[in-house]
Specification:
Spore Coat Polysaccharide Biosynthesis Protein SpsA, Chain A; 13 helices; single chain; six-stranded mixed β-sheet; 454 residues
Length: 454
């Protein structure tokens, strides 16, 4: 007879304030149809708690990759009356299927960023031994596939397979046709880097349908211009435009996009190198959707450490998740290897629709060097578009080889000016906190470690 149905396992524990916090969240959000909290694990004796899972606010693409919501979860009873309860077809992952179906129809899914649930860990439970219930993961994959058929029938998938670990689901996308992607690469000299970037994409990528627009900007070496001619003879997809003004990353890319023939735009630095040959398919799987504005990828330094796994607003101004970490599948709850929504991704390799790029006004030319990609992503958020990070798309990024570092007084002054413009424009997200992070996690490092309580 209750207004909401709450799911709990019989041997787990609720915190004393669990009902109060969930009820308060529901009352504070009149359109709330689903609500979930953070959680941790508790030992068999019921004494020691550990592994707190501090989750993001509702993250639909993370949910399509794993049941990150799990516990504690409550849903408005009218939704269960309309769309049904547990489905025995998905036994072992019946809660995952249930959560997916409820969230598909919820007006609002609310997150309470507090641990309200202690998940009992035993040798036979998935909490402590993920391989103890293999049938559950097969059922979970089937639930994800069924969700795509219901919620995104226009997106064709080949299969849903095991991701980096059990409980993570990797969706493989299918394309009847492969639309033209215009690759925009700003460049000044550094022909060895440029050759590596272009050749790795055109020779290794399984996508195939590209045009590459190199936007030349104030190169000083004659061999650079000879190389452009050689490159265009080698690859018919390559053409070179000339941007004569002083370096302005936003203006250079905007010029390239304006000249692009493709339906999709791949912004790409000249100091990257394709690693995974299916990277563009992986990114296009998300970029093709109407509700997605941009897609980023996992970027690695030359030594294999993570350079980018999404952007967190508020660490400094904004910083790359898990930067400098070596084991991608050993990150906090595997987030570096989980496709998910973020507030922003870097434009070192970023895929977006040309129509969306133009609708958002492109990159802001007042942000000539710094924060222009993050600003673009935040503009997409305001348009109601998701910004997706897909780790299965992977490139090397040799970072700032071409432009150099901001270590002169002139560059420092420009940086401070752009910093001021950016932070004033987006001050609301700094006040509220990044919705794809969690207030219980630190703003001092990028490894998702716990915030220190002073």
């Amino acid at each position: 007879e209750g207004d909401f149905i709450m799911l709990c396992d019989h041997d787990d524990l609720l915190t004393p304030d669990a009902f109060y916090e969930m009820a308060q969240a529901i009352m504070n959000h009149p359109e709330c149809d689903c609500v979930y909290s953070d959680e941790d694990k508790i030992d068999q004796a019921g004494k020691n708690v550990y592994e707190p899972h501090f989750k993001p606010d509702f993250n639909i693409d993370m949910l399509r990759s794993e049941n990150y919501i799990c516990h504690l979860f409550a849903v408005r009873k009218t939704l269960t009356d309309t769309y049904g309860g547990f489905n025995s077809v998905y036994d072992g992952a019946q809660d995952f299927d249930f959560i997916l179906r409820m969230c598909e129809h919820a007006r609002e899914v609310v997150h309470v960023p507090k641990v309200l649930y202690h998940w009992r860990s035993s040798p036979a439970s998935t909490a402590s031994n993920p391989e103890s219930k293999m049938y559950a993961y097969k059922a979970g994959a089937a639930a994800v596939k069924a969700h795509y058929e219901r919620a995104l029938p226009e997106v064709k998938i080949t299969d849903v397979i095991k991701g980096a670990n059990y409980g993570l689901y990797h969706v493989l996308f299918h394309f009847d046709e492969k639309p033209l992607i215009s690759v925009i690469i700003p460049n000044k000299d550094h022909i060895a880097d440029l050759e590596r970037a272009v050749s790795s994409l055109l020779e290794k990528s399984t996508w195939g349908n590209f045009e590459v627009i190199i936007v030349e900007n104030n190169s000083e070496q004659e061999e650079t211009f000879r190389f452009y001619e050689t490159l265009q003879k080698k690859y018919s997809q390559v053409r070179v435009l000339n941007y004569a003004g002083e370096f302005n990353y936003s203006a250079v890319n905007n010029m390239g996009v304006k000249a692009a023939k493709g339906e999709y735009i791949l912004l790409m630095n000249n100091d990257v190198e394709l690693i995974e040959e299916t990277s563009v398919e992986e990114m296009m799987g998300y970029a093709q959707r109407e509700d997605v504005g941009a897609v980023g990828c996992r970027l690695l330094y030359e030594n294999g450490a993570i350079q980018h796994a999404g952007v967190i607003i508020g660490i400094g101004v904004a910083d790359h998740a898990f930067k400098g970490t070596f084991s991608a599948d050993g990150t906090y709850f595997n987030r570096a290897m989980t496709p998910q929504d973020y507030s922003a991704v870097t434009a070192a390799v970023m895929l977006t629709k040309k129509s969306v790029y133009l609708e958002a006004g492109g990159l802001d030319e007042k942000l000539a060097v710094a924060f222009n990609d993050i600003d673009y992503c935040l503009k997409l958020n305001k348009l109601g578009k998701h910004v997706v990070y897909n780790p299965y798309a992977c490139f090397h990024h040799y970072e700032s080889l071409s432009r150099g570092l901001d270590n002169t007084s002139e560059k420092n002054a420009r940086y401070m000016s752009e910093l001021s413009l950016f932070t004033q424009r987006w001050q609301e997200i700094y006040k509220q906190g990044d919705p794809y992070y969690n207030p219980n996690l630190t703003l001092e490092k990028t490894d998702f470690s716990l915030r220190k309580i002073s």
